[in-house]
Amino acid sequence: ASEIQVTVEAGDFIRLVVVDDGIGISEEQTRRVGLGRLSQTASEAGGSMTLSTNHRGGGLMVEWKVPVLDG
Known about the structure:
By secondary structure, this protein is α+β, with helices and mostly antiparallel strands. The protein has one helix at residues 33-44, and strands at 4-10, 13-20, 48-53, 60-67.
């Protein structure tokens, strides 16, 4: 990748989005421990993690979203 964009939003949810313009990711790479742990952590907190092709036609977009807990 030659360019990466990171967005963080906070409200009722914490949302982290990372987008790059690289070559994407293979199905085998999505099973790696780091990505699996990120997905598991989000799920355990009532949130989600998604991997998709960058909307601009290449690369990868990772969205990690979890609810903000009171107190």
